[in-house]
Amino acid sequence: MITGLHHVTAIASDPQKNLDFYTKFLGLRLVKKTVNFDDPGTYHFYFGDEAGSPGTILTFFPWPGSFRGRKGNGQTVRTAYTVPKNSLGEWVDKARKAGVAVEGPQVRLNEEFVTLTDPDGMLIELFATGEHEKGLGKFHSVTLAETNLDLTAGVVGGLLGWNKVAEEGNRVRYASSLEGFVDIEAVPGGLRGTSGAGTVHHIAFRTPDDAAQAEWRRKIEHAGLHVSPVMDRNYFHSIYFREPGGVLFEIATDPPGFTVDEPLAELGQNLKLPAQYESMRGRIESVLPKVTV
Ligand code: ZN
Asked: Is residue 130 part of a domain?
């Protein structure tokens, strides 16, 4: 079963500006400070709720000085969190005071939201649908921009089994069994997105355990899509595949989670390295830019 969204991973430029925006301004917790497992001279930051719960995790690869990407077709162009009802006015005030670009409130599918722009131009939406008391809650949705909506809908609806729950203009909404939406927006003739700072690298769906993931791997392969072997990401296990429109999808397990290598109270405080890089810690620490959390 795919129970919802697990995380969203994006590209940033300046690591300090990225940290400040997501922790100080948005109020998320840095739940893991590690390196890109495929490029250990680069940070990998994980932000989320206090416990780093699946469905709240936004992660970044910050490459200092990297060029901005172009948001466009074949990409996840918007990432949305829930915030408490009636809190949008406060967010607009807060953004204006902090010099953060903000648009709205606007309405989409009968729900009110505002759009914030992060330091690299990534769009973060806040929907006033949360049942919680303050700050950011779980993911509300992601929006994929596509040249051909039907092909992507075939994967999200058909293969992954999410239910079509709404439609408005050029947008179709799919819901998982538990929470969170995937919106697919048709942009016929739109430019393709290019990767770079301010763009989403991939989105991850959550599944309860390794056995369920193995089952998904078989189904995806059977559907004729190329799917990666299982990768150990320390905090979850992952498989990756590209949907026909070009968006990179991942299916990640809920366990073991972020407390696998440091206690809950200390999440994010120390640089954590996977076992294969521990012997290179000194060298890695000397090349990573200094940041203050
Ligand atoms: Zn991922």
From this structure: yes
Position 220, amino acid: I
Distances (CA, A) of 256 to 176, 193, 233, 234: 22, 33, 10, 8
pLDDT digit string (tens) for 41-89?
999 999 999 999 999 999 999 999 999 999 999 999 999 999 999 999 9
Could you give the number of structural domains in the chain? 1
Assess contact for 196 and 189: CB atoms under 8 A: no
For 126-166, write each residue's pLDDT tens digit.
999 999 999 999 999 999 999 999 999 999 999 999 999 99
State in Å: Cα 7 to ligand 1 middle.
6
What's the 117 CA to ligand 1 centre distance in angstroms? 22
> Does residue 123 lie within any of the structural domains?
yes
Distance between Cα 166 and ligand 1 center (Å): 27
Gap from CA of 204 to ligand 1 centroid (Å): 6
Question: What distance in angstroms lies between residue 20's CA and the mean position of ligand 1's atoms?
Answer: 22
Residue 40's CATH number: 3.10.180.10
Does some domain include residue 10? yes
